[in-house]
Description:
Layout: H1 2-19, H2 25-32, E1 53-59, H3 71-76, E2 81-87, H4 89-93, E3 95-101, E4 105-111, E5 118-123, E6 145-151, E7 167-172, E8 176-181, E9 186-190, E10 214-216, H5 218-222, E11 228-233, E12 237-242, E13 247-251, E14 266-271, E15 281-285, E16 290-295, E17 300-305, E18 320-326, E19 336-341, E20 345-350, E21 355-360, E22 371-378, E23 394-399, E24 403-408, E25 413-417, E26 432-437, E27 443-449, E28 453-459
Antiparallel strand pairs: 1-2, 1-28, 3-4, 4-5, 5-6, 7-8, 8-9, 9-10, 11-12, 12-13, 13-14, 15-16, 16-17, 17-18, 19-20, 20-21, 21-22, 23-24, 24-25, 25-26, 27-28
Amino acid sequence: MKMLILKMLHGVKTASVRLSRQYTSKAKRSVLLQDQKKVKNYEPKTSDAHTNRVYVWGFQETGALGLQTNVKKAKERYTEMVHHPTRLQFSNNNEITDVTAGYGFTVYAVKRSDGQTLFGSGLNTDSQLGFQVKGNKKDPANLDVIIYPTAIQLPREQGETDEDMQVRCMSAGRAHLVVVTQNGTVFTMGHNAYGQCGRSIIEDEVYTGSSLIHRIAQTDICGAEDEIVAVECGQDHTMLLTKLGRVYSCGWGADGQTGQGNYYSAGQLTLVGGDIEKERIVRIACASDCVLALNEHGDVFGWGNSEYGQLDDSPDAAPQICTPRALQLTKGIGKVKDVAAGGSFCMALNDQGLVYTWGYGILGFGPFVEQTSKPQHLLPPLFGRNDFSNATTVVSIGCGVFHMGAINSDGDLFMWGKNRFGHLGVGHKKDQFFPFKAAINGKVLKVAYGVDHTIALCRPHL
């Protein structure tokens, strides 16, 4: 019996030895190597063929978000606010190249085969979206509110092509719009009571239902040797930036925001002097009536409203500054590469990717810090930097009248500030005291900060 058990155990051992096959390194690679022809190449399907997509959120009652497609649906699905970034259907069907947001309205620059280059939605009480007529019988009789993106007809001169009418840059104020096309023509429309459209002020002018779109030739503003590269609208004034770094302004100047050395309204675009006269300005920023400018060396200049020490923190500082001056309070933050100015606060981004805020409001330092006369930097982890992504940094900043935003190198948008209309996109309408990441399914390229809504131009992650 003992011998039988030993023979059985020996047989099991022999079998186990036979089952454990030995491979050489070459044979092992051969066994593990897959047939690459059988491996499927996954190509994700995108919902549209366009490069950019647009997300919108905030106050919808004005029609600025353009989410509705017809009047009937607008009545059936009424929503006062959209608290989360929502993809705009219009961007699925059109190639959108630029966006801007005014007070209750939005404008899109597009590329289309039919030659239309400009669309808008939202408030049109002052014809800031051009002259709009009823498209069909179901449209409301009152076209002071446009609920979905509608073409804005730019008047053409003989010989002007679709390419000429493509938008180079644009900006919207409280109730006016300024558009610069590829051929250098400046188009202005909307409210002009302060000369913000760059034309003479007409007393008691009626803007509702107006078909007037003012044209200004680029050469009449900056001459043949220069060209306009950017436009920035404050609340009721306009500024144009040229390739040679010159700034031209017009409009309301009660707080010195035109920078023309006085506090009067101006109906003609005029070259701005002061400390920026011999500087090459590369960036101008203004959401209300305080203006910041940045030169090619990273120095910051400012003019306009300074009631909260945005431009000068000295004890005897003037509350309004009508001539551009070099800011001393930003000297210690390094070389600045981007600036933004809200209603009562300012922002700066240096070449190290650090964000600085100062002035009065929700500055991003929590609920107990609402005013500082010195620029203070927000810690990088607030904008996505961590142990797993230690190279992440902020690449651009912007703001509305009461809120701020920053885009990091990963294409993520962080927002903070007042949130009465849900325009921070954080899911509620409570104020946000620290930067908070917006849930956007795309890499953010540009953000248009309206007074009560926000528009983000993005690219897909894939």
